[in-house]
Design goal:
The structure is a homodimer of 274-residue chains. Chain A has 274 residues and is an alpha/beta fold. The first copy, chain A, has ten helices and nine strands. Chain A has one domain: Divalent-metal-dependent TIM barrel enzymes (TIM Barrel), CATH 3.20.20.150. In chain A, helix 4 runs parallel beside helix 5 (113-133). Chains A and B meet through loops of A and loops of B.
Chain lengths: 274, 274
């Protein structure tokens, strides 16, 4: 099987490698699509990162991440919007296929989820024209409801698509198996997303039983309960055929194994269970 | 404030008390509504538990719990349905206001969530006539999506109400703040539930940030991020005015404090933040 359909999100090997070494490790196993995080880009410098991307002909399936809009003050929201514009600039420099947005949760002690969601809407409205002017699609990533308080108050595909529909084109969704697999409306909403041309990324990993940590205990594909082949079939039937991007946060397991072994396992599982 | 609107789910004080001692501890602080678990009832015996309920004029806001339908074999599903009939019998003996159903997750290594949901539908279809014959309402409790794999594959209020609508009357929902607070369709679906006369229970606790354990780190009301007053307003506007039932699984914090202090804190928070 060609590995053109496989991308490695560099969070998966962040404990082992900085950006340049991560790229080398991917290339050594014929992986030519990656998704870096902004802090990894900042550590090496945007120009050097962009040079590495171009000189190796890499596909950047997404830059992680913009978002985090809700704030306790108008100045805070304005600062978040400015930072998101820098994220757009970086995504453009890296020729990324989209800027992934984790929209943010409840700001500083707030219990007002509708207000946080309103700030996300305002933030997107301010950011989208800037991104459109540079031809950089924005990919809202609905996060699992267990992150509603502290990471993202957009928690279902339906909610993300409702947001997109308030804007029109150039904004869509990143569909991450970990965040959406449980959703009783998953098939319906993936079809809706595809019909609207809104599927911009397809992330994979697995849900472990038991899950020992809300953030850092994601599983390798095949080690959990997500029917990844069924998800892929829904996404492809909806018209999206881009790479599947492996994004595993696993501080105590995969994060502690040799990076080349992690990448080799991603490839083996991609070829067998995804 | 009268405490008639407050019920203590005995899971909240399970580490401190068996059924009889839990009742005594509640009565000592003028709590006259409780919700026991089946294992607590079995430990003392159904007849004795029913005698304690009657002799003290207690309200039983629900019996926890039936459900757990999905199984790896038809025999397993049939056994689950039989066990649920015993749960109905027990709820009737205790004069409970409803039997709470935690429907079950993926059976033994399955990745087939639609099939599990189908078994839930089949289980409910088999159980409901039995419950109706004894006048015992069934309350489907949609559980937070983080429990989809191992506890309940009904994960939103909308999904639970769609299930109810396949059956007609005598089946409804238990709305637990912990499970539903994040839902972008919460207000809409609570209104729908109320219009259909389907709100059978209202459970409260709080979502802590950070949450350190997926199951056993629920917060005391006021210690987390849930807007409990707003939730209560939605539920009351939808026509439900039954007690708020405090259900806190907190093995390492509230489970280790003296039971009377836990109950006193429940009362104080009920009077101030709920």
């Amino acid at each position: 099987m060609s590995l053109a359909g496989l991308s490695i999100n560099l969070a998966t090997i962040r404990q082992q490698y900085g950006f340049a070494a991560a790229v080398d490790a991917c290339l050594a196993q014929n992986i030519t699509a990656i998704a870096p995080w902004r802090d990894q880009i900042h550590a090496i410098g945007l120009d050097e990162a962009a040079r590495i991307v171009r000189s190796n002909g890499l596909t950047v399936t997404g830059l992680c991440r913009g978002g985090m809009f809700p704030a306790t003050t108008p100045e805070g929201l304005a600062a978040a919007i400015e930072d998101n514009k820098r994220a757009v600039d970086e995504a453009v420099a890296l020729d990324a296929e989209c800027l992934v947005l984790v929209v943010g949760g409840l700001p500083g002690g707030s219990r007002d989820l509708p207000a946080a969601r309103g700030m996300v809407l305002d933030g997107l409205a301010a950011l989208l024209p800037y991104a459109q002017a540079q031809n950089m699609p924005l990919a809202i990533e609905p996060l699992h409801p267990m992150y509603a308080a502290d990471r993202a108050c957009v928690n279902t595909l339906e909610q993300a698509l409702d947001l997109c529909d308030q804007f029109g084109p150039d904004i869509g969704v990143a569909i991450d198996a970990y965040h959406v697999w449980w959703d009783p409306k998953l098939a319906e909403q993936i079809a809706r997303a595809g019909a609207g041309g809104r599927i911009l990324a397809h992330h994979i990993c697995d849900w472990l039983v038991p899950t020992r940590d809300l953030l850092l205990d994601r599983g390798m594909m095949g080690d959990g309960v997500i029917d990844l082949k069924a998800l892929r079939a829904m996404i492809e039937a909806a018209g999206y055929h881009g790479p599947q991007e492996v994004e595993i946060f696993s501080a105590e397991n995969w994060g502690k194994r040799p990076g080349d072994a992690v990448i080799a396992t991603c490839i083996e599982r991609f070829e067998t269970v995804c």
